Amino acid sequence: MDNRRLILLLVFSFSLVMLWDGWQKHNQPKVAAPVASAAGTAGVPTPTTAPGASAVPGQAPAAAPVAAPKAIIRTDVLVAEVSAQGGDIVRLELTKHHASEDRTRNYVLFDNGEKHLYSAQTGLIGNGLPTHKTLFTLGAAEATLKDGQDAVTLRLDAPPTADGIQVAKLITFHRGSYQAEVSYEITNGSGAPIAPHAYFQFTRDGKPAEQPGGFGVQTFTGPAFYTEAEKYQKVSFDDIAAKKAKFVAKAADGWAAMVQHYFVAGWAPAAGEREFFANQVSSDLYSAGVILPVAAIAPGQSGKLAVPLYAGPQEQSRLESFAKGFDLVVDYGWLTIIAAPLFWVLEWFHKLTGNWGWAIILVTIALKAVFFPLSAASYKSMAKMKTLGPRLQRMKEQYGDDKMKMQQAMMDLYKREKVNPLGGCLPILIQIPVFIALYWVLLGVVEMRGAPWLGWIHDLSVKDPYYILPLIMGATSFIQTRLNPAPPDPIQAKVMMMMPILFTFMFLWFPAGLVLYWVVNNTLSIAQQWQINRMIDAGGKASE
Predict the structure, then answer these.
(1) pLDDT (tens digit, 9 = 90+) per residue, 253-308?
(2) What angle do CA 148, 152, 155 make, to 5 degrees?
(3) Rounded Cα gap, residues 244 and 220, in angstroms
(4) pLDDT digits (tens, 9 = 90+) for 67-77
């Protein structure tokens, strides 16, 4: 009994230390957002070998921002702002997703300095060819997707090179989609064949995006790469700055992305030779992307290269249709193998009910049913321990400070009564990975963002505005504690009684969806434990 309590107390104490450390990080002063434009600051990747050979990323000195004209692209799901300098997408509003701090405003993914520096940049590598620092001519000041249209395209023209090479950049967005195509049309007006390279990159500051509620919880923000051979690889900004970043350099397939909580942007070229890169451009500015060869273009001929771009929410169905493995950007932590099927079940229940809150409740019930035999074994063990409480107390009074005799007498009692003092722990430990996986599912999926349940819960991804669910969770935790056998040690008993209060305090800031899960789980546990306690009490009275 004491061993089991000691294990639980150690786990609880360690959790408090981790939560306190996370709380300190969560509440540290934020660095003021930069106000300079990202345009013109990122380094231009440059090939170090002859044209046609593999290109590798390089870095150019930071340049002063240039005030360039901008064009607006509007579709039914987004508003994009494109700069004439490089044709960069410097701002992207997602009109179907609200801002974290103000639900009346749209969420901004690419940002030109309001909160972050974050843009999608492209360019060509070759003598005199346009980069993301070149000033293009905008084909229009605004391009709007009209009724009946499936796509809208903005065209930008670069100044002809001294050799007579003409380049146009086209950006195409589609109806109802966060996918786009960024393409180059190259006309070789020179007297010699050309074989340039093209780069497609994201440039972003190193500040994390919005974080979920709850102490100590940090989701990944930074570049990620995927290939068939090496699979999914995340790269931290710190490792890039320290020149310790490890990721695949060359491949014949794969994509490059910039990942953050709930949202992602990625480049997914068609199969063929490519090289991935990640650089630190300045003290708090990073670029990551992919370099591609452009097929040789003979004099007087034209060539084209198009690369798909995704910039939007981490919705599973959209991610899977964009590129193979792109759905891995959803951060389920280290229990993806369990979390992914759990989300599938959660999504199925959502299709059935049309509400994510009810889906959470049904998933909790389903999990409780799956683990019913384990939970029952745990509660039976605790119920039997509770019936032995008075006898253990008498032993303590009988043996006083003689710990050896006390331990021996306890073990003899457990043996006679066929009670395992650790029997209540093992079933709980087996279930912990599943519960942690569900925690990450509820924490990480964008589908939960802005999803209402009922009444006062308008967004399951943020804390309960009136703290009703956390208080209910605390009450159910207190009832559970009362149903458990009281520790013979008075200090342990006081600590166990304090745990519901401490957990209630922590859950005040947790997303409502997570608290709803715990409330339902606690309620079902109380019903199950109460019934088992009653059965064992009845059996004990019958045997007397």
Answers:
(1) 999 999 999 999 999 999 999 999 999 999 999 999 999 999 999 999 999 999 99
(2) 150
(3) 17
(4) 899 999 999 99
CB of 97 closer than 8 Å to CB of 252: no
What single string gives the DSSP state of each residue in 45-84?
P--SS-TTSPP--------------EEEEE-SSEEEEEET
The pair phi, psi for residue 78, each rounded to 5°, is -155, 165
User: What are the start-end ranges of the H helices in 217-303?
Assistant: 237-241
Give Cα 370 to chain centroid, integer Å.
27
The closest of 177, 263, 197, 198 to 224, measured between CA atoms, is 263
Question: Which amino acid, residue 292?
Answer: L
Which token pair is 284?
């708090």
- Helix/strand/coil for 309: strand
d(CA 177, CA 150): 10
Length of the chain: 544
**DSSP secondary structure letters along 200-215:** EEEEEES------SST
* Location of structure tokens 């509820």: 442
Those residues with Cβ within 8 angstroms of residue 252's Cβ, 6 or more apart along the chain or in another chain: 271, 272, 273, 274
Contact predicate 178/310, CB 8 Å: yes
pTM of the model: 0.80
First-to-last C-alpha distance (Å) of the chain: 24
Q: What is the distance, to the nearest Å, from the Cα of residue 380 to the centroid of all Cα atoms in its chain? A: 38
Retrieve residue 329's tokens. Answer: 């950007």
Q: Are 230 and 152 in contact (CB under 8 A)?
A: no
